[in-house]
Amino acid sequence: MKNLINFPYKFRKSIYFEDDSYRDLIFEGFIIIYKVEDEKIVILEIIKWQDR
Q1: Which of 3, 28, 30, 43 is the most buried (most CB within 10 A)?
Q2: Where are the domains of the chain?
Q3: What is the C-alpha separation between 18 and 3, in angstroms, rounded?
């Protein structure tokens, strides 16, 4: 997760959105959906993998 700030596009393109600025980070059983904006990263949702 430390790489998120420096490399926001490192993680896969979101399977929930068509736009490439939406990404899915998988971390310890969670899917963290975030959007890369100009100078910030906006976390949209945190989903427990088994609950999706």
Answers
A1: 30
A2: 3-51
A3: 23
d(CA 33, CA 52): 12
Predicted model pTM: 0.84
Backbone φ and ψ for 27, nearest 5 degrees, come out as: -145, 115
Q: For residues 43 and 27, is the Cβ–Cβ distance under 8 A?
A: no
| CB within 8 Å of 46: residues ≥ 6 apart | 30, 31, 32, 33
Q: Which of 38, 40, 7, 39 is nearest to 25 (CA)?
A: 7
